[in-house]
Amino acid sequence: MLRADTELRAHRGSGRERAFLLIATTLLAAVGVISVAKRGDAQDTPEALTHAMSDTVPSEGGPAPDEADAATPLEDAYRRAAELERSGEPSATLEAWRDVIALGPGTRMAARAHRRVSWLEERSEGGFAPLNALLAFRASDAPDLETFSARVETMPAGRVRVESRLLLAQAWGRAGDTDRAAAMYRAVVGEPEVHDDESRLARDELAGVLAASGDLGGALHELESAGMTDSARHGVLLRAARRTVLEPVAWAVIALFVVLVLAGIKRVRGVARAVAALGDPATLAAVGIVALGPYLIARATGDEATFAFLVLGGANALGLLLAFAARAAFPSAPSPARRALSVTAVLAALGAGYLAALYHAQSLPFA
Amino acid sequence: MQRTVFFGSALLMLAAFGCETTGRVVDDTGVLTDDAPGRDAPLPMPTSLTYTPEGCGYEVTSPQVLDVEMGADVFGAAADPGHIHVSFVGPSHTSFAVNWHTDNDTHASSLLIGTDQALLDAADDAVTGVTRSEGHFMRFSSDPRGRNAETVHEVHVCGLTPSTTYYYRVGGAGHWSRSIEIVTAPAPGSVEPFMFGVTGDSRGNEEDSWTISQRRLRDRGIDFELFSGDAVVLGTLQPQWNDFFSARVTDFAVEDLIASRPLMMANGNHDALAVNYLAQFAFPQEMTPGEIGQGEEWYSFDYANAHFVFLNDTVEDSGVLGNEEANWLRADLGAVNRTTTPWIFVVHHRPLYTCQSTHSPDTSLRANWQPIFDEFHVDFVLAGHNHVYERSAPIFGIEGGQGMVASEDPSTGGPRITDGVPSGTVYMVAAGVGAPLYPVETSCPTSREGTSTRNYVVFEIEGRSLHMTAYDALTDDVLDELEYIK
After folding, report:
1. Among the partner residues A2, A108, A324, nearest to B482 by beta-carbon distance
2. Which of A24, B89, B162, B470 has its CA 20 to 30 A from that of B60?
3. Identical fold at B50-183 and B194-485?
4. How far apart are CA A28 and CA B378, in angstroms?
5. Taking a contact as any Cβ pair under 8 Å apart, which residues of chain A between 185 and 224 contact chain B?
6. Tens digit of each residue's pLDDT (9 = 90 or more) over B412-442
7. Tally of domains in chain A
8. Which of B164, B270, B428 should one mutate to test binding to chain A, selecting the residue with the greatest count of A CBs within 10 A?
9. How far from chain centre, in Å, is Cα A359?
């Protein structure tokens, strides 16, 4: 995480430099306004500016364009409030935003001030002491999880405690302490002032923590008991649960095909026939379409998930090729045996495709 | 076996196209209807409308849609306006545009505006202190047969006072929306402080992160929002756009922000520049050669002392990128007065620089556009496509297809400023408020920050100083900061 440079802040705060900058930019901006006015754009003409509104809507708060560049008390108050907000002093920030509203009611800057006042007032429990603690924790380059966890337990119920617990839960998770992360997410769900979306987020993250610790069943139960079967994570966890069955099955089918081929190796008579069968243009065209068709369509409509289409198309094509070859290579085998071998070949190829897609997906995060 | 393969293929084709022959569709409520045009019915002729909104001084052209007309006080059963959102089309300090959605039988496309909210709430038409503006409505569908058509309305309001808070309502007599606050931009070149947010790739709205990011931007008090594309999974599917506009959590709906603060969009590969995208957003229209989408494919606007350029990198003919679109970009940036407009931001979808993520950097775009960014000293290029947060070192110049890292301020990692000119352009990826997260690395020579986190970014500009903060959208924790003065 990169923090703002304190020297740069000090530089910006230098009175002489700031005054010079202000004068220079004011002069330059005034030139700009004049040049814009000279362009004579229809939308900037006095006629346009006075369109209807001037007759019916009082322009009470808005400075005229040629006045907008002056350093007004309103702008100074706005800058002060923004600076206080960044430095993490909520009580003083609240007063500063109220000053902005008082100085420029109906202005654009007052609109933001109203929003910030609302936000701060919603987090004013405990005389801003909890919010101060949260902001200090956030601003710290080396946050002390133990100390802040203890501090959160002393906070009164409110928005700050909910948000602090969410933040702590994530931090404990990043620190590898899944037990404390899970406990903190559960505490968020139990908060009296938690919002629905925060509760859903906490359950979702809790499921992620449980799954990461190997408790796949517990993770699924957490989501399903809260009716969150529509969440993306539920889909991921379901696939993970299926994987525990499908992965060994895929390996078993591949192994079975290899065993069948090896067992019948002495009966191979038709290698030339197999090659001839595979060399048939119609066969190759069909296999080519199966192999590349989905991939080419995926490429034409976007470049996402193309690997999966390539793997599955390739697996299907490989299955067909193996099935053709297997049938042709064992001409003396009984017909049911040849059919079984072909089916096993197709299943083995599908298994190989599944495993390739699976291991590729596992190389991505959040698989 | 070959017969089986071909038989299977035939079955698949029948499954894919068989429903076309029935002329029956399932509407949004799940009801199967027969009244949609069947295969033998003539295809509806697309139509368009061009007019000059009162007092605006610019023309508005609708996309090619099923039906478009100027509004009239006609109301259907579901006339209440929904999906209300605003954008800039004309000068940001004196005008804005509004779009909203109703049922197909509602034609009323009017807007009331004033600075006194109580007066506006009491008004049913123009009165002293309340002005009425008229707009148009469009019936559109991505289906060439016009099935599942939707209606969207559009009004342009001009002649406003800069840096002022207004309130507006949309609809028509007896069917007005609630009153909504909107603020105009400072005058051009003004050094008045302002703030904007950046998001992208909301498709899917996983973990409610699209909605939560909008609530956080609302709470921060932004003046407008830039979106780098991929709002939905497939731009032709209107239900997904409905989800995008109407998403909500607890006490907040996305509309609470985007009806009040302009949302400026870039087309993403998933949006597909579909008619749904073109009809539901109003952006500056300056049709240039090679451009489609009534000139909204690429556009620019000014806000106070900053210039914003939106590019389309998902074009039908890739030759456009290095020719018509690049020519427009060069002309647009060349017209910017850097004395009064020191800041330039470019927004598009596919990143020129990204490190070891799902999508590789787009080196074709890099070859076509970076020399122009360099020539005009663009400050920030904001992209999405990879669902991550990334910030590059300042980059200036290309050698062997690779960007050259420019001189950096050692304390911030940002560009070094010499006589008000940055040493290079900062390329950022700020996306993933809804789409699945992707991996990312910081091992590339051009990388400075990177994290696979749902994120949103806020820029605060005060004259010639800039403060950028990237936040974790879910916890609001700070991911990255950058500050410098020109």
Report:
1. A2
2. B162
3. no
4. 20
5. 195-197, 200-201, 204
6. 889 999 999 999 999 999 999 999 999 999 9
7. 1
8. B164
9. 22
The alpha carbon of residue A70 is apart from the nearest alpha carbon of chain B, in Å, by 8
Q: Do B412 and A195 touch (CB under 8 A)?
A: no
Contact A56 B413 (CB under 8 A): no
Say if CB B55 and CB A52 are below 8 A apart. yes
Q: Where are the domains of chain B?
A: 50-183, 194-485
- Report CB contact under 8 Å: A60, B269: no
The radius of gyration of chain A from alpha carbons, rounded to an integer in Å, stands at 34
| pLDDT beyond 60 at B286 | yes
**Would the CB atoms of A2 and B475 count as touching at under 8 Å?**
no
In contact, B240 and B202? CB cutoff 8 Å: no
pLDDT digits 0-9 by tens, A125-150 = 999 999 999 999 998 888 899 999 99
Say if residues B460 and A79 touch (Cβ distance below 8 Å). Answer: no
Domain around A315: 264-362
Q: What is the CATH number of domain B194-485?
A: 3.60.21.10
Residues within 8 A of B (CB atoms), A 236-255 only: none
Q: Which of A2, A54, A197 has the CB atom closest to B480's CB atom? A: A2
Residue in chain A closest to B132 (alpha carbons) equals A52
Q: Are B456 and B478 in contact (CB under 8 A)?
A: no
Name the residue with tokens 């998770």: A173
**ipTM of this model?**
0.84
Cβ contact (<8 Å) for B131 and A364? Answer: no
Answer yes or no: are the C-beta atoms of A188 and A194 closer than 8 Å.
Answer: yes
Cα R_g (chain B), whole angstroms: 23
* Residue A200: inside a domain: no
Cβ contact A108–B115 (<8 Å): no
Q: Strand, coil or helix: what is B49?
A: coil
Q: Could you give the percent of chain A with pLDDT greater than 90?
A: 41
Provide CB contacts within 8 A for A188, sequence distance 6+. A162, A165, A166, A169, A194, A198, A199, A202
Report CB contact under 8 Å: A108, B223. yes
Residue at B258: amino acid letter: I
Instruction: Decide if A63 and B162 are in contact by the 8 Å CB cutoff.
Output: yes
- The CA distance from B96 to B185, in Å, is 10
Compute the distance between CA of residue A353 and CA of residue B312 in angstroms, rounded to an integer. 36
Q: Which of B161, B180, B271, B468 to mutate to test the interface with A (most CBs of A within 10 A)?
A: B161
Residue of B nearest to A59 (CA): B161
- Kindly state whether A304 is in contact with chain B, defined as any CB-CB distance less than 8 angstroms: yes
Q: Does A50 contact B165 at a Cβ distance shorter than 8 Å?
A: no
Superfamily the domain B50-183 falls into: Purple acid phosphatase-like, N-terminal (2.60.40.380)
The reply to whether residue A2 touches residue B481, judged by beta carbons under 8 angstroms, is yes
Query: How far apart, in whole angstroms, are the C-alpha atoms of residue A59 and residue B161?
Result: 6
Query: What's the pLDDT score for residue B281?
Result: 98
A41: pLDDT strictly greater than 80: no
Please tell me the distance from the alpha carbon of residue B483 to that of residue B486, in angstroms, as a whole number.
Answer: 10
Q: What is the pTM of this model?
A: 0.80
Q: Is pLDDT above 80 for A13?
A: no
Query: Distance (Å) from the C-alpha of residue B304 to the closest C-alpha of chain A?
Result: 10
C-alpha B225/C-alpha B212 separation (Å) is 14
- For residue A316, the chain B residue with the least C-alpha distance is B5
| 3-class secondary-structure state, position A170 | helix
Is A346 within a domain?
Answer: yes
Q: Write the DSSP symbol of residue B209.
A: H
Q: State the Cα–Cα distance between residues A176 and A129, nearest whole angstrom.
A: 29
Q: Which helix (H) or strand (E) holds B450?
A: strand B447-451
